[in-house]
Amino acid sequence: MAKIYHLNRLFPNSNFRDGDEKIIENIIEAIKSKSVIDIRSIAQMNYTSQSSISRLSKRAGFNNFKEFIFFLSNEFSHKSINQLEALPFVMVNQDWDLIDSYFNNAFSNKKIYLFGEGFCQTLVNYTYRKLLLKKIYAIDLEGVEIGLVSDQTPYTLITFSQSGENKNGLLKMEECKKYGGKVIALTATENSSYTVKSDLSFIVESGSTSIDHENQNLNYFFGNCLNLMEYLINRYTKIPKA
């Protein structure tokens, strides 16, 4: 299987030719290894011409090679550290020891809030029903203030927002922390308010370089979030072997 098997997520408006995928793989590996990245070295590495690399950049949807490399550098220069091996479409801002502690605590205590609006409500509904199968009864906070349902003990809030700037979600974060709870955020936007104010944040690829608030275009965020939640719920609710 190719290392980069989701080019249409990275470049939804591309028009690639045979051989382009391999060249892009080589560029990404060069970025990760911090090699010198210029159009001449990339052309030599791939036994092709500089003009061919320039045309590849335009097929990827960029005006020139520099824009193309800037985009790839932002995408991959730090992912080798923070990207989840089993989930190549997700980055996380903490190490596994801390991730394990958050989810083990949440699922063992069975004290979980869920929140998301718009299309993210679908993610809440799915997660809620999936947790029910594990006999974990989460609380959907849609239209509900935490103060009205809280038993004054800490809960873990799992909240979804593609933009990472959902106002009601940010209020839920504050409410949750008021009672000593933890916040786990799933968003498509690095350095958003969600990633800054949460205790643990997962950056989930949407397949686009900009946020489509109306969700009219190709969007992998919601599907990727479902796969991520499947992985996490399975990881932390496995029945111990006898």
From TrEMBL:
Q: What InterPro entries does this protein's entry cite?
A: Homeodomain-like_sf, HTH_RpiR, RpiR-like, SIS_dom, SIS_dom_sf, WH-like_DNA-bd_sf
Going by the entry's taxonomy, the superkingdom of the source organism is recorded as: Bacteria
Domain (HTH rpiR-type) ranges? 3-79
According to the entry, every stretch annotated as the SIS domain falls at 98-242
As recorded in UniProt, coiled-coil segments are: none
Instruction: Identify the SUPFAM superfamilies for this entry.
Output: Homeodomain-like, SIS domain
Would you kindly state one Gene Ontology biological process term found in this protein's UniProt entry? carbohydrate derivative metabolic process
Any one Pfam family match given in the protein's UniProt record, by short name: HTH_6
Listed GO MF terms: carbohydrate derivative binding; DNA binding; DNA-binding transcription factor activity
Instruction: Name the chain's protein.
Output: MurR/RpiR family transcriptional regulator
